[in-house]
Amino acid sequence: MPSELSRRLRAVRAALGDVIRGAAGTDAYAHYLAHQQRHHPHAAPWSRAEFFRHDLAARWEGIRRCC
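Given the sequence above, the corresponding structure tokens read:
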């Protein structure tokens, strides 16, 4: 039977993994698929490549800098 300390360490490790994946954007496609399934089940979702292409375009197309 796992000790309380090992349960807490596993919970901390899982939480840190979630934070790192969220910050890196690696779970963005999974979140997109879940959103599509919940809110737009009739529409075909984009492929992973299409999703990231649209995501990058949305992030960078509107950026205007003077220097």
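Residues 4-24 form the longest helix (21 residues). Try to locate this feature in the token string yourself.
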